[in-house]
Amino acid sequence: MSNSNLQLTMDGREKGNVGNIILKVIIYILCTFLAILSILPFWMMFVNATRSTTQIQATAVSFLPSKYLFSNIGILTSKNMFRPLVGFFNSFIVAAGATTLAVYFSSLTAYAQVVYEWKFKNAFFSFIMAVMMLPGQLTLIGFLQMCYKFNLTNNLIMLILPAIAAPSMVFFMRQYLVPSLPIEIVHSARIDGAREFYIFNRIVLPIMKPAIATQAIFSFVGSWNNLFTPMVLISSPKRYTMPMMVSLLRADIYKTEFGSIYAGLTLTVLPLIIVYLLLSKYIVAGVALGSVKG
Fold this sequence. Notes:
It contains 14 helices and no strands. With 294 residues, it is mostly helical. Mean pLDDT is 81; it is low at 290-294.
């Protein structure tokens, strides 16, 4: 190779390296910008929790904390309708119960869709896909009529049981299982005498751990933040969830304490932030695996 060709090759490589560096810098800048946009609402919520109502009304947007955090928390806890321990307990019972039922039964349904061969298998999957298109508010009237008919209002169990039917989670679990579960393992376990539930609980569930962790986080967050259904079904203060208590803070006819409302929102969101920080790696891994394998 002549010196001129060698020089051209080296120049091309240097230009390619410079181009890659520029591309990486652009990607890093874009990711940093998107990260700031994602964190900014939470930061503003925390900042407003440390400001007084007068400050919030005078300047709606501020990025610097103030000194009224404990004052706002004191106002918050002095209200009869706001009992954080009761709200946290009820919200945790609902979120944990709904997440457990949704994850387990959705995984079981997806397992049946993948492993078993039966006549209406494809039609059943199409039905699940069709149910995904229906908004939850569409079936709410019938659900409410059933709850009132059987005297099941003011009962947290009615916020938990409907989570068994989670068509979008079934779809995600099925898409994950199709390439991840070797059918030969199931057949071998059956030959060895293992029963179906034993195969599912001891063999299939460990394989589905990334998908289960991801969907469990999404389901927990969704159940914790659910406000519409509890507001319709629950009227007893002993059964109020945390979002219900925060929403009722604006019902004060004398004065709306915006600082205490933001403090309540911060208390409500804080457990979700902690859960996300602890389990964020499962979200990334599970979503990536589900999208690639699906």
